[in-house]
From TrEMBL:
Matching NCBIfam families: asnASE_I (TIGR00519)
UniProt domain Asparaginase/glutaminase C-terminal: residue ranges: 204-322
Protein's name in the database: asparaginase
Biological process terms in GO annotation: amino acid metabolic process
Similarity field: Belongs to the asparaginase 1 family.
EC top class, as a word: hydrolase
Organism ancestry: Bacteria, Bacillati, Bacillota, Clostridia, Lachnospirales
Domain L-asparaginase N-terminal: 5-182
EC number of the protein: 3.5.1.1
InterPro entries, alphabetized: AsnA_fam, Asp/glu_Ase-like_sf, Asparaginase/glutaminase-like, Asparaginase/glutaminase_AS1, Asparaginase/glutaminase_AS2, Asparaginase_C, L-asparaginase_C, L-asparaginase_I
Amino acid sequence: MKNFLVLTTGGTIASMEGENGLIPAMGAEDLLSYIPDIGKLCTVDTMEVCNIDSTNMDIGYWRMLAGAIRENYEDYDGFLICHGTDTLAYTASALSYMIQNTEKPVILTGAQKPISFESTDALMNLRDSFQYMMEEDTRGVQVMFGGRAIAGTRAKKINTLSYQAFSSINFPEIAVIRNERVIRYVCTPKPEGEVLFDTRMNPNIFLLKLTPGSSPEILKEIYKQYDGIILEGFGVGGVPDRLFETLKACQNAYPEGQKILVLATQVMSEGSHVSVYEVGKRMEGEMPYLEAKDMNLEAVFAKVAWILGKKPSSWQEIEELFYSNVNFDILGI
């Protein structure tokens, strides 16, 4: 029998009704008590990493999760993280960079309704996760939710209430579970070499979502305080005329590599294509920047934090790291 470690963080799946609404209250053993027959498939140990609403998730908790997996890596065949849905995609992306080259599955799941509710989706998600982890070809950081296995860097929460909360953006689902059978669409390659753990991250990043008429003055303040700037523009991407000169001056005012600028799109599907229009094409050679292309916003944030944590010495190194393919995060290169 395979031996798995379940790490709990709180979230809706572990919540109960409080005076002011749902609040995380159940521990790991409480969650597993709802699926007592799981012991017929595998052996399970538990660890409570934290017990929070996932709105409060941050880099400190990411490090705790990665550290717990590193400390127990040799003792288990896989790891299941129970997580709140609101920031689950961010955590899945972050762990994709913190834990690389793993032969073992690191699966994140949760629920849209607490496990104690009669209409909960938690039981299905937990059972599906264990079944999926039992498969020999399941490896790496993935999300299992609503019968879908999604690469950790491709998951996005698209529904606030529906049970099909997550979708795989700009990339196929890794697998689905239908009638208790795993149907695999994407093969995750076996890693070459040993698992790599790296929890160095700098999350000092600002996301600026452009709106018609955005003021250039905000850029000056952002550059003073943040090391990474993600500019979420319109359509295929580009910088409005009123922002161009200020953005150029701000980005070029700092030594090469000190500030990382990423151009992304507000459109969820099909990615950015900055050079299609003049408002994007004109940036070439005017300032150093990266383009998100088909990456999820959650993955862009986590990857920039990961790159900043490495303290790269040149813009070339930043580009090489950003455009490297980690857990299927970027393909449109």
